[in-house]
Amino acid sequence: MLVKLENPQLFSKSIDLISELVLEVRLKFNEFGMSITAIDPANVAMISFRIPKSAFSTYELDNEVLGVNLDSLKKILKRTGSKSSLIMKRNENMLEINIEDRIRRSFTLNLIEIETEEKELPEWEFSSVVEITSSDFIDSIEDCAVISDACSFIIEDGKFILEAKELNSARSEFSSDEAKIEAENCKSRYSLEYLQKFAKGSKLFEKTILNFANDHPLRIDLKSESLSLSFILAPRMETED
């Protein structure tokens, strides 16, 4: 196995984000590219991360599944710069990682066995799909986090609303002028602890796509030509605000 990725900053930042949810993952390499699918220890959130084969400048391998400790991997990836190239090569039970820019630096990462069962991202039908500017989504999540530990995603008369209510309240409302809304009236409530982590992923993309339904899991999709990131978050089933 030998793969080379130019300008690996998005990869590095994505691994940093994923490491906030899970400690160990399988890096899967096949004819389509590299992928990670993992569930957090609390079984509340799921993440899917993909880099297509076309994004790599070199891609030579048979199908490979590499178990890695994310904390160790992210520390190595943080050594990359904006003009670096990243080369990864398997050597028996080690992953050789080379960073090339002005000089060539080499690291080895011990591969590990991961016993947890791997699942694919569920294919659900959602009654509501909202495409929103990532900066607007991030600001709205941070507004809600000032008030509560959970917020509601609401579709009401063609408008998308993000709202947190305790003794105090925060509310952001978007019409079709500010967001692309294809939805029916619904409401579902989600943990802001997880949403704030997911919003860090939104910072890497111009648009954030939200898929949800009444009292249904939330799916967040973030996509570019060179990378895609998706999150699934279970709803908070509590008494209404």
Structure description:
The chain contains four helices and 18 strands. It is of the alpha+beta class. The chain folds into two domains: 2-110, Proliferating Cell Nuclear Antigen, CATH 3.70.10.10; 128-233, DNA Polymerase III, Chain A, domain 2. The strands form three sheets. It has a nine-stranded antiparallel sheet. A five-stranded antiparallel sheet has the order 5-1-7-8-9, with helices on one face. It has a four-stranded antiparallel sheet with strand order 13-12-11-15. A hairpin with a 2-residue loop joins strand 11 and strand 12. Helix 1 packs antiparallel against helix 2 and helix 3 packs antiparallel against helix 4 (192-202). The mean pLDDT is 94.
The total number of structural domains is 2
What is the number of E strands?
Answer: 18
- Largest β-sheet summary: 9 strands, antiparallel
Rg from alpha-carbon coordinates:
19 Å
Name the beta content range. over 45%
Can you identify the CATH class of the largest domain?
Answer: Alpha Beta
Q: If strands are numbered along the chain, what order do they take across the biggest sheet? A: 6-2-3-4-18-17-16-10-14
- The helix/strand series, from N terminus to C terminus, equals EHEEEEEHEEEEHEEEEEHEEE
Terminal Cα span? 53 Å
CATH fold-level label of the largest domain: Proliferating Cell Nuclear Antigen
Q: What number is the mean pLDDT?
A: 94
* Number of helical elements: 4
Taken from the alpha-carbon principal axes, the silhouette is: elongated
Structural class, judged by helices and strands?
alpha+beta
CATH architecture of the largest domain: Box
Low-confidence parts, pLDDT < 50 over ≥5 residues? none
User: How helical, in percent, are the residues?
Assistant: 10-25%
